[in-house]
Task: inverse folding
């Protein structure tokens, strides 16, 4: 019998499913469901609820639950052999939090298949909406927690990161301060990942070491809740958090809701989920320390595996637990594909092909033109007041602005990843924009490193499926090896290697000095 595993990824804009066959080493099914299109009644835009305050970004947790029903119905309709799936795992957009009341555990244990998940869950939330990773409204709480923990360096070395606006701890503190009664009524706080895992398992699921590290609450080295951080965040927090556990660990059999409603195998195991970035590390096969990938998605991320836990003294980068048991580093740039899309809209460019063609008509270095594309508040560098800044760049020159945005995004990555002290031998490029060769050439030239395209459109969901397989094999005492497990699932696209152009690389070695100065000038202006 084929050994099938299901991975789900609950991201900002969509819920994706990937089914892998471990014996043929193939992805046998993949599907995505876009929240705005499939569930328009929630009124989200790109998966986020509109808000008058541009710094506040929330999403409805019920939308994620409804999407889970929909994707299972879709899999059933598409003839996926749900009865043969051995384990389910998943990943979620990181940092987002779900607030549950004292009815949650009971409801989860008794999900009625005759009702929808939305109907089942109607009374379990202590807060209707979930702050997500795009939220930047907690600068004050970040400062308060950081101060109590003894500053940037100490906060980063204890929790893996400095306090960040989107991290769950500062978000919890804001909730506690603004709505103390609702906070008091909250009996359980879940991450997006552990919330979705709880639905599958029919009980409150643990938080894993990957996603848990994105909260400013977990001791990054000991991998347990850090009591100083909990105390600095909100009272009685320890009573509201689930235990921590490695991702992929078996929680129990899947809830009978999914068995009776969709025909999922009653013996299928529900396992602990992780964050989308840790899952992508697996999905992209970044198992050995020093391997690096750049994902060009809603946010652009620069990430890789790390042997020892080394934190960023300046507090810009993050260290998370990796599903393989070690660590991973990550730097997240919020103005990724949505910012590129803004430029495309601004200059009326019909599609991405045309965007790439325009970039190719311009010269590396853009004649010294620099664009700082902070359409949204930025995470790295920290920018709380959105704004677009141009230096020696003609606003009316569409082609130059197309080049400028990507050059800036790559120079920012190069500049802000220096703390990792890793000189990658090669970079794997993934995510929507990685199909564009003109952009990948800029990546190779700015980073002065060869770039290989890897076409795993759903790397997080794939990683999640493999994480489920790892958990299942571990529970069966099979002692699985990660390297063997991921082999064959994600190979760079043949002949996709792009080498840096020596002349262009020299231009960027100089231009990055100007970029650095422009960034400091803009930041000084914004912060004064
Ligand atoms: C990582 C981060 C984003 C989200 C996107 O720290 O905030 O990459 O995980 O889903």
Result:
């Amino acid at each position: 019998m084929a050994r099938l595993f299901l991975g789900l990824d609950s991201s900002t804009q969509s819920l994706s499913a990937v089914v892998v066959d471990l014996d043929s080493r193939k992805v046998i099914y993949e599907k995505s469901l876009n929240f705005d299109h499939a569930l328009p009644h929630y009124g989200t835009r790109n998966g986020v609820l509109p808000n008058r305050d541009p710094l506040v970004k929330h999403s409805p947790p019920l939308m994620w639950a409804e999407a889970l029903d929909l994707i299972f119905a879709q899999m059933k309709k598409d003839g996926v052999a749900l009865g043969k799936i051995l384990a389910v795992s998943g990943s979620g957009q990181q940092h987002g939090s779900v607030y549950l009341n004292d009815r949650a555990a009971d409801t989860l244990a008794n999900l009625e298949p005759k009702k929808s998940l939305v109907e089942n869950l109607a009374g379990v939330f202590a807060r209707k909406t979930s702050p997500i990773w795009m939220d930047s409204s907690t600068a004050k709480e970040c400062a308060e927690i950081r101060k109590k923990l003894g500053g940037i360096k100490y906060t980063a070395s204890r929790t893996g990161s400095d306090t960040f606006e989107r991290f769950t701890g500062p978000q919890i503190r804001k909730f506690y301060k603004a709505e103390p009664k609702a906070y008091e009524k909250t009996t359980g706080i879940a991450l997006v990942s552990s919330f979705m895992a709880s639905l599958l398992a029919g009980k409150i699921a643990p938080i894993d070491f990957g996603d848990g590290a994105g909260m400013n609450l977990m001791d990054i080295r000991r991998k347990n809740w850090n009591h100083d951080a909990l105390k600095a965040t909100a009272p009685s927090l320890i009573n509201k958090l689930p235990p921590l556990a490695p991702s992929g660990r078996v929680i129990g059999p899947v809830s009978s809701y999914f068995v009776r409603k969709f025909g999922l195998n009653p013996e299928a195991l529900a396992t602990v989920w992780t964050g989308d970035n840790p899952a992508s590390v697996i999905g992209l096969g970044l198992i050995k320390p020093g391997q690096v990938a750049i994902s060009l998605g809603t946010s652009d991320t620069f990430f890789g595996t790390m042997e020892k836990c080394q934190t960023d003294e300046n507090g810009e980068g993050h260290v998370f637990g990796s599903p393989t048991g070690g660590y991973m580093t990550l730097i997240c740039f919020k103005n990724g594909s949505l910012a590129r899309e803004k430029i495309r809209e601004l200059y009326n460019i019909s599609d991405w092909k045309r965007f790439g063609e325009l970039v190719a008509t311009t010269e590396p270095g853009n004649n010294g033109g620099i664009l700082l594309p902070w359409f949204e508040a930025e995470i790295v560098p920290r920018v709380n007041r959105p704004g677009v800044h141009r230096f020696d760049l003609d606003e009316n020159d569409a082609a130059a602005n197309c080049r400028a945005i990507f050059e800036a995004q790559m120079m920012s990555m190069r500049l802000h990843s220096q703390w990792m002290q890793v000189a990658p031998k090669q970079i794997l490029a993934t995510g929507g924009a990685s199909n564009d060769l003109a952009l990948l050439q800029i990546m190779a030239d700015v980073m002065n490193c060869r770039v290989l395209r890897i076409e795993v459109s759903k790397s997080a969901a794939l990683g999640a499926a493999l994480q489920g397989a790892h958990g299942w094999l571990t529970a069966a005492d099979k002692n699985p090896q990660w390297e063997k497990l991921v082999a064959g699932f994600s190979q760079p696209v043949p002949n996709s290697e792009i080498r840096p152009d020596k002349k262009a690389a020299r231009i960027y070695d100089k231009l990055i000095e100007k970029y650095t100065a422009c960034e400091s000038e803009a930041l000084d202006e914004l912060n004064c």
User: Anything to note?
Assistant: The chain is about 40% helix and 20% strand. The CA atoms of residues 173 and 233 lie 5 Å apart. The pocket of D-xylulose is lined by residues 11-12, 93-95, 133, 166, 214, 275-277, 299, 301, 330, 332 (CB under 6 Å).
